[in-house]
Structures are given as structure tokens and as C-alpha cells.
Amino acid sequence: MNGGLVQLRRGELVLDVAPALGGAIANFYGVRGGERFDWLRPTIDGATACFPLVPFCNRIRDGRFSWEGREIVLPPNDPPSPHALHGMGWQQPWQVLRIDQHAVRLEWEHAASAWPWRFRAVQTISLLEDGLDLRLEVSNLDSEAMPLGLGFHPFFPHRDSATITLSTSAMWQADAALLPTVLETPALIVELQQGAPTRGLLLDNNFIGWDHAARIDFATASGPRSLCISATSPCDFAVIYSPPAANYFCIEAVSNCTDWLNLRHLPHGHIGGSILAPGATLGAGMRLATRWDR
């Protein structure tokens, strides 16, 4: 531990984990020939490099949904937006359970509150010889079944020099509140399959039919770099977030589309999400594999 960070090193790679900042990754970079290359956006002013999404991913409209005859009301947590965003885990301190040579294990336990179900979330973050492996598991500690979404929210830098390649079948269009409206297959679907430059790409959209893999290619003055993303079920959805006037972008591996708890009348394959029985555990993983050249 150093200044509240857990630092792991393996070969050329360095990983900093910030348990107190939502169990987030603070930095993930490599050093070769004295040059540092950030594979994830470095943490600045509390804006972290990657954080876990639990117990739901992205927005719930106005923080409200109905469940088994109950009206659930969650406080907005991303002002000035009126919506509940990304669950609660990213804004809570996590406890360190174990630190190994190349891995750290964190825990956060939620007591019933506005989200009325008790659960425990455990993260295992492992530094590999050629990348990073993330594992998130959630156990229902409540006496009732609970809805659950989980996922990973990494931020990638070097937007002006990057290209995204991934395969999906459709994209949720969104309204002005960034909530899903209709599934479509825009030309962007083909562009992403062939490799789409992130420069000028403005998105905050959910994609279905994701094949659990994506590739980011970076063109740098020192040569090409690439990052391969892979995820496990139930993270069957991808979100691409590339806001205007930002030198970063996100490819999120998630198990539910935005506002899924208010869209349960739609086919499960369009919205995702899970129901976790009392005492049951659900897990998901994401891996980032680094390459310094093609």
C-alpha cells in the first residue's frame, strides 16, 4: 500500500488499485525503453481509470422502477442528472481482502437501503505478463431474489490516435436523456466491424449481439500499440462512450442495457439483466491484453 493505492508490478506493466475510490483502478501502464504508455486513462482529480458496475449498469430513469409490486426509488448520484447511474459500488470504499504478488482481492458489502437488497461484491484484479484480468462476483445475502446487473467501465486514452474494432448486431438509439429508444442497425455497425476511428466519434450507446471481444489500435510516434478486450457472460452487451471535447473513450462490458429495469416487457436478449436468488452468486470477467506492436 502506498498513499492508499495498491501497486502491482510485473515485467513492463504497472497497476495501481484504489480501494477507497470505489474499488477502482487508478493507473495501468507499461514502461519500455524509459517510455511510459498508459493503457488506461490515468486517474486525475478522482476520475479513475476503470471501476466496477454493481448492482446495475448505466442509468435508471429518474432512479425509479417497479419490482414485484414495490416501487423502488434510488437517489440521483451524478448531478445534475436526475437518474441513478452505474449502481453504488463505484462510489463506495472497498475493503482489501488479500494482496498477492500479482493480484489484489477487494470486497464491498451493501446493507439494505434505497436499494433494498443485501449483497456482497468481490473483485479480483490480477496483473498478467501481458495485461490485466478483472473478475467481479456478487452474492445475494438477502432473503428475497434481487435484480442484478454487473460490468466493467474502463476509460481509454489517446482518443485522437485510436481505432475501435468490434462486432455487434444492433445498437440502441438514445433520447436526449441518454436513455434507449429503439434498436437499429446503423452504418456504424459495419464501420466498427471494419475498424472505426475514435476521432470525432460521439456516442453514448448500448450494443446488443456483442461477441464478447473488441480491439483498440493506437498509432503513436513510437510505433503501433494494441489492446484486446475480452469478456465473459453475462456481460453480453457493450457500451461505447465517447463524449465530445474529451481525449478518452470507453468500451464497457455490461450485463444489462441502460434502464433495463424499466424495459422488462422487452425480450431478454434486447435488455439483459439477471435475477439472483437468495444465497446465489453471479460472476463476470473482463481481460485486457496488451501488445506493443502488431
Structure, described:
- The structure is a single chain.
- With 294 residues, the protein is mainly beta.
- It has one domain (6-291): Beta-galactosidase, Chain A, domain 5, CATH 2.70.98.10.
- The protein is 4% helix and 49% strand.
- It is built from 2 helices and 26 strands.
- The protein has helices at 187-194, 268-271, and strands at 6-10, 13-18, 24-32, 35-38, 50-53, 59-60, 64-67, 70-73, 84-85, 95-99, 103-110, 119-128, 131-140, 146-148, 151-154, 162-166, 170-174, 180-184, 196-197, 203-208, 213-220, 223-231, 237-242, 250-254, 274-276, 281-291.
- The strands form 6 sheets. The chain has a 9-stranded antiparallel beta sheet.
- Strand 7 and strand 8 form a beta hairpin.
- The longest helix has 8 residues, at 187-194.
- It is globular, with a radius of gyration of 18 Å.
- The two termini are 35 Å apart.
- The model has no long low-confidence stretch (mean pLDDT 95).
